[in-house]
Amino acid sequence: MYGWIFSQYSAEDASNFDRIFKIFKELLLYSSGDVQEALSWLTELDRQYKITDKNYGIADFVEDLKQKGYLRENKDQDSGTLRPSSKMELSLRKSALNDIFGQVKKSKTGNHSTSKSGLGDEKTAESRPFEFGDSNDSISFSETLNNAYINHGIENFSLTQDDLMVHDSFHQSNSSTVLMIDISHSMILYGEDRITPAKKVAMALAELIETRYPKDTLDIIVFGDDARQIEIKDLPYLEVGPYHTNTVAGLELAMEILRKRKNVNKQIFMITDGKPTCIKKGKNYYKNSWGLDRQIISRTITLAQRCRKLNIPITTFMIARDQYLVQFVEAFTKANNGRAFYSSLQGLGHLVFEDFKSGKKLK
């Protein structure tokens, strides 16, 4: 008799490469893509915790990384230095997706649910009578058979069109999202690394949209003294700078990007840990890190109101809970009629994922 015999998976079954690779990818994110620094940390971990063995060392691991195409020579620097390849960047995004959002089943529908029920791809727990045009795949067999037994009896089984029940579902629509990430200096202050979880969330969201919602768009903005758009491939190398927080510049760039998008559903996600402290006046910067500056806050609130008029909701993920920050976020959210979450770094990914799904129900 031919067949397969399955055994229970154990972490020990993973190869030496896979086991070390998982650690190395985490270190690579913390080092903002600096391969040499990540390898230095990996070597120190090996010295303390013996993550390699006599048959497979760090040198073997590095050679495997090059052979498998995860590292390539950095031509911009001295010969012999390495940098992550596009294959590594893809692997980092997939790992972030699995770590933060869990195993999300891939789908090529490219759509999202709206607030109306009827024909669609996302089934609900509700059911309704079959109507002309409904797909056979949506038939609820248990409720259909139950109707047939009730209507025609068990002894003389009969099934008619009037007995058919189908799973109700949500209509689908495309969406355009802009993710704003704060890269001001406070994102690494007080010994807490806030930028790495933020960029992991961005990579996970990018991979989610690319694999499950390919007709959606995701644009990523970083904002400090100024704001700029970055590509998804740049996320592993993202670093915090000696910047203030120019939320106005970030919102203005986000609105400019969304203005060019044709999707009806548009939204902005903003990950930050502080209040706006900077605006630009002509060619000069006006900065004030103390308290809530009236000029800076006023311009920020004005943009929130403008987004509301354009039907662009803003969801703020605040990685802090100082009282004066709460007051600002509440005023900002009210002006936009958006949403706000005060999150720990551990809960950030889950909140972004849940709000991303619920945001697709906007008309």
Describe the SSE topology.
Blueprint: H1 16-30, H2 35-49, H3 58-67, E1 71-73, E2 82-84, H4 86-101, E3 112-118, E4 122-129, H5 141-152, E5 165-173, E6 175-182, H6 195-212, E7 217-223, E8 227-230, H7 247-259, E9 265-272, E10 278-281, E11 284-287, H8 294-309, E12 314-318, H9 323-336, E13 339-342, H10 348-359
Parallel strand pairs: 6-7, 6-9, 9-12, 12-13
Antiparallel strand pairs: 1-2, 3-5, 4-5, 7-8, 10-11
Helix pairs in contact: 1-2, 4-6, 6-10, 7-8, 8-9
Task: Give a verbal description of the structure.
The chain is an alpha/beta fold and 363 residues long. It folds into 3 domains: 14-84; 123-170, no CATH class; 174-359, 3-Layer(aba) Sandwich (Rossmann fold), CATH 3.40.50.410. It is 39% helix and 20% strand. The protein is built from 10 helices and 13 strands. It has helices at 16-30, 35-49, 58-67, 86-101, 141-152, 195-212, 247-259, 294-309, 323-336, 348-359; strands at residues 71-73, 82-84, 112-118, 122-129, 165-173, 175-182, 217-223, 227-230, 265-272, 278-281, 284-287, 314-318, 339-342. The strands form 4 sheets. Strands 8-7-6-9-12-13 form a 6-stranded mixed beta sheet, with helices on both faces. The chain has a 3-stranded antiparallel beta sheet with strand order 3-5-4. The protein has a two-stranded antiparallel sheet with strand order 1-2. A hairpin with a 3-residue loop joins strand 7 and strand 8. Helix 4 packs across helix 6. The chain is flat and about 80 Å long. The protein starts with 15 loop residues before the first helix and ends with a helix. Mean pLDDT is 84; it is low at 103-120.
